[in-house]
TrEMBL record:
<comment type="similarity">
    <text>Belongs to the uracil-DNA glycosylase (UDG) superfamily. Type 5 (UDGb) family.</text>
</comment>
<dbReference type="InterPro" id="IPR005122">
    <property type="entry name" value="Uracil-DNA_glycosylase-like"/>
</dbReference>
<keyword id="KW-0227">DNA damage</keyword>
<keyword id="KW-0378">Hydrolase</keyword>
<dbReference type="InterPro" id="IPR044147">
    <property type="entry name" value="UdgB-like"/>
</dbReference>
<keyword id="KW-0234">DNA repair</keyword>
<dbReference type="Pfam" id="PF03167">
    <property type="entry name" value="UDG"/>
</dbReference>
<feature type="region of interest" description="Disordered">
    <location>
        <begin position="1"/>
        <end position="21"/>
    </location>
</feature>
<keyword id="KW-0408">Iron</keyword>
<feature type="domain" description="Uracil-DNA glycosylase-like">
    <location>
        <begin position="78"/>
        <end position="256"/>
    </location>
</feature>
<protein>
    <recommendedName>
        <fullName>Type-5 uracil-DNA glycosylase</fullName>
    </recommendedName>
</protein>
<keyword id="KW-0411">Iron-sulfur</keyword>
<keyword id="KW-0479">Metal-binding</keyword>
<dbReference type="InterPro" id="IPR051536">
    <property type="entry name" value="UDG_Type-4/5"/>
</dbReference>
<dbReference type="InterPro" id="IPR036895">
    <property type="entry name" value="Uracil-DNA_glycosylase-like_sf"/>
</dbReference>
<keyword id="KW-0004">4Fe-4S</keyword>
Length: 267
């Protein structure tokens, strides 16, 4: 049984998290969850990282001027997509005025505009944009998640915050393992974070660990009777990468199509 403790009502959150119960440390809770739906419900109650809690709630209280009339989510953002996904797309962390505002991965910011437009062209998304939950967007055999589920200051989580958050991602991949065939990782931070998670979930990661590259493609054999997992790399869809031309929309689409092919997601 999952044990919850009463929330700290003195934190001054301006988001929708006020009044919710909070979980103990992720390492104690995540392994007990029995399904993706339960994971998505419990994860937003986490308050394990004080710096991230303070930042996400401050952003939700102060808001950006363009969104001053909106109620910010202001909590950890769970993964988005079906519970039986064949492909997982792994980012870095929610954006302060994107996922931290809307409550959905890569939703409401420029990175999401690039990612979901490319997913739509690759046949993995039902529409080319992601505005807010309830906008009709669905993903085809694909789930989008991240190694850190709270928006970090300057988009830079610390290694300690990454490690504290890891049990959520580890449990997510364990639950996806029966259907998962491929993982596309956006950026080097996510790549380093996901390797130990995949090892814990039942795939053999070679030594030395494979290095991140935009065109990286590594096949990880199963440590049990399951099938292999294809691990692919792509530069992160950050505004810096897309505005400088390091990463074009076509490059993102190409990597998504390559991942969909090895995941056996029919066009």
């Amino acid at each position: 049984m999952l044990t919850l403790v009463a929330p700290d009502m003195t934190n001054g959150s301006g988001g929708q998290g006020g009044g919710m119960e909070e979980t103990p440390w992720p390492a104690a809770v995540a392994p007990t969850l029995t399904g993706i739906d339960e994971l998505d419900e419990v994860l937003p109650t986490c308050r394990a990282c004080p710096r991230l809690v303070a930042w996400r709630e401050e952003v939700a209280r102060v808001k950006r001027a363009a969104f001053r009339d909106e109620e910010y989510w202001g909590r950890p953002v769970p993964g988005f997509g079906p519970r039986d996904a064949a492909l997982a797309v792994v980012g870095l962390a929610p954006a302060a005025h994107g996922g931290n505002r809307t409550g959905r991965m890569f939703t409401g910011d420029r990175s999401g505009e690039v990612l979901y437009a490319a997913m739509y062209r690759a046949g993995l998304a039902s529409r080319p944009d992601s505005v807010r939950p309830g906008d009709g967007l669905t993903l085809r055999s694909t789930r989008v998640t991240s190694p850190v589920h709270c928006a970090p200051p300057d988009n830079r989580p610390t290694p300690g915050e990454r490690d504290t958050c890891r049990p959520w991602l580890a449990r997510e991949f364990e639950l996806l393992a029966p259907t998962l065939r491929a993982v596309l990782v956006l950026g080097g931070f996510g790549w380093q974070a996901v390797l130990p998670v995949l090892a814990a979930a039942g795939w053999r990661v070679p030594r030395p660990r494979p290095a991140f590259a935009h065109d990286a493609h590594v096949v990880l054999p199963s440590a049990s009777e399951g099938g292999p997992l294809h691990l692919l790399g792509c530069y992160h869809v950050s505004q810096r990468n897309t505005s400088t031309g390091r990463l074009s929309p076509g490059m993102v689409e190409d990597r998504l199509r390559a991942a969909a092919r090895v995941a056996d997601i029919a066009e």
